[in-house]
Design a protein that fits this description.
Elements: H1 8-11, E1 30-37, E2 41-48, E3 53-64, E4 67-68, E5 72-74, E6 84-89, E7 93-104
Antiparallel strand pairs: 1-2, 2-6, 3-4, 3-5, 3-7
Amino acid sequence: MRVDRIQVGDVLPPANGSRDLPNDAPVGTIRFSLHARRDVGSILKVENGQDQGLKYGGFIVRYVGGQPRPPAETSVCTVPAGMVSFEHWPEPVIQIVIGGLQRSDEATPVCPPHVE
């Protein structure tokens, strides 16, 4: 496991018409990248380099109105094999806890109802 400092461009979806593949995760790995800024909020990029889909759960700690909030469950989408998923929150997220990793047989992302 490794944590790296990243730039907002590292987690933004590719520009319209771009042919660049946003999935740079090595084969057989899963990569989570979180970036938070006051002007864009927070973006989580999940790169699935495995040959099977990924289902997982998440809890976030975020700043709202300049105050940290307690950890809260958040809704996240599945990530099909070899694909990338992006999650967004309008506030700065200072921590995300990922857990409950499971295999998913979905060929397209499946997103549960939004969790408040």
